TrEMBL record:
Official protein name in the record: HTH lysR-type domain-containing protein
GO MF entries: DNA-binding transcription factor activity; transcription cis-regulatory region binding
Source species taxonomy: Bacteria, Pseudomonadati, Pseudomonadota, Gammaproteobacteria, Moraxellales
InterPro entries per the UniProt record, alphabetical: LysR_HTH_N (IPR000847), LysR_subst-bd (IPR005119), WH-like_DNA-bd_sf (IPR036388), WH_DNA-bd_sf (IPR036390)
Coiled-coil intervals: none
Organism of this sequence: Acinetobacter bereziniae LMG 1003 = CIP 70.12
Domain HTH lysR-type per the UniProt entry, residue ranges: 1-60
Family per similarity comment: Belongs to the LysR transcriptional regulatory family.
Keywords noted in UniProt: DNA-binding, Transcription, Transcription regulation
Amino acid sequence: MNINQEQLMIFKTVMETGSFSAASRQLGKVPSAVSMSIANLEIDLNLKLFKRVGREPIPTSQAQLLYEKTEQLLIEMNQWKQQAIALSEGLESSLNIVVVSELVHTDWTEYIALLAQQFPSLQINIFSAPQEDALKMLMNQTAQLALMFEREMLESREQFVELKKEALVPVSAINHPLSAHSKVSFEQILQSRQIVVASRDRTIKPELLYSKNYWRTDNHHSACSLILKELGWGVLPLEMFNENPELKHKLKILDLLDFTPKFEYFVDLVWSRESNLGSAARFLINHIRNQRIHTK
């Protein structure tokens, strides 16, 4: 059996127009070519698709059943061809992007929508992980791109472009002891349990850790739930308050007396120099670079 895309298109058009002559006009072919294609298709399938009685062919029940599958099959064949062309031009078979847990609330999906529009056949996989784990995924090439906070010390293999600034804020529940103070000292912070978003690897020290006593979680949703239960204070994205205004009545942003930790960060799009990036990843990197040039 050797069915090709043209045969399926001719079969579909005959079914929809109701005659070989109408199908030939729509397809820009001579009627004999359409008739011959249907005859060959019937031979290949070993099925009678049309009863040739009278002026117009009458579809058989087998033809009706096959017609129901034809549209989807033609779509899949076109997608397959587009994917093959894209791969030959350097498009990756899939693109894995990891978003740091605290950034899940930020407006990063606009970049994914842009990729989907530009590369409709590309499979995109999104992961969320703490900062340290996101970096690991980049370095072992589990992910090709990462949306991460800036870091003071960069690995030699890292390369990045800045996206924007995001703020994190120290918070505690309204009825937590720290919330009773207009100013919170470093000693009070040091002695109060902290809920910290940190790597799943317990050998890695959390980056935003200040307290002697702390609990770990790998995402800010869990951290927020624990903080709301008055089980500790923590550092959460300011964007969470914008997304969920009710938090403004349940959490207090702490005013730190003795020190001002750096809670405003640049967000970077990061990749590894060792990764062989495909055209979609390179497109996104160049798009962000061009955005920066035009906003300066």
